[in-house]
Amino acid sequence: MDGPPPYSPVDMEQTLLDSCQKPACYEKIVTLTKEPYDSLGMTVAGGMSSRGWDLPIYVTNVDPDGVVGQEGSIHKGDILLNVNGMDLTGVTRGEAVANLKNTSSPVVLKVLEMRPPEDGQQECTLPPCLTPSPTDSTKSPLPNDDYSPLWVSWLQLPRHLYCCKDIVLRRNTSGSLGFSIVGGQEEVNCNQSFFIRSIVEGTPAYNDGRIRCGDILLEVNGKSTWGMTHSALVRLLKELRGRITLTIVSWPGSLL
């Protein structure tokens, strides 16, 4: 098995800079009125253990003639957080669909609207190893609902929607952990996350097999990386020995 390839740090810097300068997603409350026999008229995907990913529930398609389409506030790519007081985060797609179907009027949805990437953004800013591929996409089982958000879209999500994982690596007195990072204040002039830039074959990170190019590095041994400069985090990673716990989050499209 080959390790994730390196990519141009210039391209990655531009992606990070764009995310600093553009507005984040925002929550909205949508109230719908429907008859008992009406469906909401939308399809969803995502959820826990969705083709190997733990994702929020997101809208893949809206029927313009359905209840949701006629109201007009919910769009493809929106994240569904809550319906009539029932939490839709941390559930499977099947559980979310059941909760959405078993609703009575009025239907109150808490929704997170995702800012859509600009036309051509994927081609202009995504590094090669971060370009989504068909095998990475989280898709609805329905054949006509194959929409999946771009990798850059997931970066807008607030931290409480991240499904994080702890990865423990071990390093003796010599040798590298086996990955490089990009991000931090020095590189983009704003408070930005750190991303895994590349992974070296034969190292602890590579041999573990769970770290992907494009993963967000949130914590190191319980210490948050938010607000750190690039040089400070590099120095910390080089100095650590023994058992090292990395808290990361992965999104679809971060690995070819």
Automatic annotation (TrEMBL):
SMART domains assigned: PDZ
Region ranges (Disordered): 118-142
Protein name, entry field: E3 ubiquitin-protein ligase LNX
Pfam families the record matches: PDZ (PF00595)
Biased composition range(s): Low complexity: 124-138
Organism: Ilyodon furcidens
Domain of life: Eukaryota
PDZ domain mapped to chain residues: 29-115, 166-252
Gene3D superfamilies: 2.30.42.10
PROSITE patterns: PDZ
